[in-house]
Amino acid sequence: MSDTEPVLGPDTVLVRGDLLDTYSTDDGTVVLVAGAAGHRVVRLSPLGHAVHSAVGPGRTLAELEVELVSLLGQPPTGDLSDLVRSAVHSLVDEGVVVAGQVPKDDNSGDIRS
Amino acid sequence: MTAPDVDEAVLHVAALGATIAIALPDHRLRAPARQAWSACRTPPVVECPSVTAPALVVDAGADDIARALQSLTQLVTRAAILARAGELMMFHASALSDQRSGATIAMVAPGGTGKTTLVRTLGPGRGYVTDETVAVAADRSVAAYSKPLSVRRTEPGQPKDEVAPASLGLRPPQVQPWLAGMVLLRRDREAGEPVVVEQVDLLDALVLLAPESSSLASFDRPLHRLADLVESVGGLRRVRYHDAADVEPVVADVLGRSR
After folding, report:
1. Do β-strands A28-33 and A13-16 pair in parallel, antiparallel, or remain unpaired?
2. Calpha distance A66→B134 (Å, rounded)
3. Does the CB of B231 have a partner CB in chain A at under 8 Å?
4. What is the pTM of this model?
5. For labeling, which of A7, A58, A75, A86 is most exposed (least CB within 10 Å)?
6. What is the predicted ipTM?
7. Is the Cβ pair A23, B207 closer than 8 Å?
8. Do A41 and B210 touch (CB under 8 A)?
9. How far apart are CA B42 and CA B88, in angstroms?
10. pLDDT surpassing 90 at residue B258
11. Domain spans of chain A?
12. Tens digit of pLDDT for each residue in A21-51?
């Protein structure tokens, strides 16, 4: 994780990263992520795919957790919020999701990665 | 449009289907460059991409010339990749073809992991397509790049020698190569252990091939294009080996395929 990456909190706004292509089969999904240091292909876990889909044009982490609990229910063991946060961290590290601290309705575009 | 190649200071070579002009301002590089690139010589083309060979110091020795030729090869490869970006799917790979059918195997691997050794070992009697970059068109035809082989010396820290294919008993493809199969090379077996061939899941294949591709993002829907290519050749296989000679059955299998 980079030094400039924001700490994820309930109000952290999440948006989709700059994806050049997405390819899915019955076995899963891979995405091509644009990056300054080069593009890379990332295979999404099932939860990672759900997170990426649910982020849509932008949601706070709290909204995302509510959405995914609604969609997936609580897992047999563990806490879905913890799993979601872990998945979000991984997706932010890979550039699949971008996290910022600005309110969702702020149009300044000051979303930092 | 072509022009007479009267200027000895310029050498034209075919690389990945493009013509690249090599400017050789230092006369000491002209003969070794022409020798090394003998399999790629092609008639001049006006306004083709060009590169200039590195300058040599006044008292340059054999190692300096070797380093300059090595740098020159890298310059030509970059120019050719740039010229074909968005047209051809390109991979860091060596490739051999069947001299009658053109069936070609692409052996994908990062630099320094055995690509050149494989073509030197298994290439005699076959078409030497490349030891560096495999470029595939949408119809699976392969643009040959029969460049000088970059041969590592035994002593560490020494420059590689750029060696003409003919000097190693290799010949360029005699018929149009077409991609019949792709493998990912991993030289992680111990001496004496048998070669292991593993089928790679398609999604994992995309993850593994992307870092070894060039200009992938210049295509429309690049992952779909790459997936179509991988599926069209029966998927990607990972070949884990130690000795290059042990890969012979895999090469023979792919080169025996028909279109």
Report:
1. unpaired
2. 48
3. no
4. 0.89
5. A7
6. 0.84
7. no
8. yes
9. 20
10. yes
11. 13-100
12. 999 999 999 999 988 778 899 999 999 999 9
